[in-house]
Amino acid sequence: MGAIDGMEQGKVLTPLEIYKVLAKSNCKQCMLPSCLAFAAAVIGGQKNLDDCPFLSEDAKKALSVNLVKRSTAESPQAEFMAKLLTRVKKLDFAAMATERGGDYCNDVLSVRSLGKDFHVDRNGLVRSECHVIPWVEAPLLSYLCHSSHQQITQNWISFREIKGGIDWRGLFRSRCETPLKKLADNHPELFADIVDLFQGEEVEGFDADIALVLYPFPHIPILICYQAPDRELDSELTFFFDECCGTNLHIKSLYTLCAGLVKMFEQIARNHF
Ligand code: SF4
């Protein structure tokens, strides 16, 4: 059985990789509203490849090689994704593009993320000039679908000050701030690479050795402040967020975004240092 074009062997499938080989007719014979919702449901374990009558036996076999269904505990994420995909279809891309800091052209909404353009079509399919990073997809669609929106305020607040942040604070500390602090302690030059690779901005006026602003999305500015260890004083690393982040993204998506960023930085450190 050969691989499907463009599909990496041995890699865990994403919903979009399944979507690419579906008929894309949104005929609903699988009892879901769209092919994209079906793809997310297959990953989430609520649907089987056999539930789409238009998938060829060859395609099913090729997909099955890399298909890892998520456990029940992860299924809410697949459900969340399926809901987002349904909501994207109802968005007025043309009307919302400027407010969200994006560009609209040919029924595609383009949004800049960390210096790269990401393009979202009417079905919620995300494409990019670079490899589409799976952890960007859900927060990006969530950013576009979020019911409220605020422009950048330039007032920085901590994670716990954001609505819902107190509940997620422990997880945020252990998955985002602590691992990035360790990474920076071992690779102080990492931040220079981050500035270059992701169009970060070094900023002044903060009580830190390094203060760096990143834009995962146009109106989601994140400030990372790092204080290197000094004699017996331990290092410190804290994320701050423009006040608008709490309005523009649900706290869970903000956490997902930051945890994904840190994982990506760890990968860069593994490859470069
Ligand atoms: S049955 Fe297949 S082609 Fe029809 S909507 Fe579902 S996934 Fe798409």
Protein described:
It is a single chain. This protein folds into 3 domains: 15-88, Electron transport complex subunit B, putative Fe-S cluster (3-methyladenine DNA Glycosylase II, Chain A, domain 3), CATH 1.10.15.40; 91-145, no CATH class; 156-272. The protein has a 5-stranded antiparallel sheet with strand order 5-9-8-7-6. The radius of gyration is 20 Å and the shape is globular. Helix 1 packs across helix 2 and helix 6 packs antiparallel against helix 10. It is an alpha+beta fold. The chain has helices at 15-21, 35-44, 57-66, 75-89, 93-96, 134-145, 165-186, 190-198, 245-248, 251-272; strands at residues 103-105, 108-113, 116-120, 126-128, 156-158, 201-202, 210-217, 220-227, 236-242. Helix content is 42%, strand content 16%. The two termini are 38 Å apart. A hairpin with a 2-residue loop joins strand 2 (108-113) and strand 3. Iron/sulfur cluster binds at residues 22-23, 25-30, 32, 35, 38, 52, 54.
Features:
four-stranded antiparallel sheet, five-stranded antiparallel sheet, alpha+beta, 3-methyladenine DNA Glycosylase II, Chain A, domain 3, single chain, binds iron/sulfur cluster, 9 strands
Unreliable parts:
none
Q: What count of helical segments does DSSP give?
A: 10
Indicate the mean pLDDT: 87
How many DSSP-defined strands? 9
Listing every helix as H and every strand as E from the N terminus to the C terminus, the arrangement reads HHHHHEEEEHEHHEEEEHH
Structural class by SSE content? alpha+beta
The order of strands across the largest sheet is 5-9-8-7-6
Shape: globular
Report, as a whole number of angstroms, the end-to-end distance. 38 Å
Which small-molecule species are bound to the chains here?
Answer: iron/sulfur cluster
Largest sheet: 5 strands, antiparallel
